[in-house]
Write a structure and sequence with these properties.
92% of the residues lie in helices and 0% in strands. By secondary structure, the chain is mainly α. It has one domain. Helix 2 runs antiparallel to helix 3. The termini are far apart. The relative contact order is 0.10.
Length: 100
Amino acid sequence: MTRTRTVKKEKISVASEIDRVEERKLQCKNSLERAEFRKRKQQLSDDDRLALEDEMTILNERVEKYEKDLQVLRGENRRNMMLSVALLAISALFYYTFIY
């Protein structure tokens, strides 16, 4: 099962993976904002307040995790772009050296 999941994950482009992670991060931030708004505006019992704070802690951890994932993905995207530029430069060099 993990093999098929890995194969599917490899077929996804880095740019689409970045978009997906950014969307999830945005959803978590929106949920966090709603939770903070509820905490400020509503009179909550101690149990509800603790549950809300736990939820906010979990959401903050998820946002941090997504930010780390984005940082890694952007680095990978940057590396892929540099590799593409290098291949283009080498191709142009060979073209002008041997064909032109």
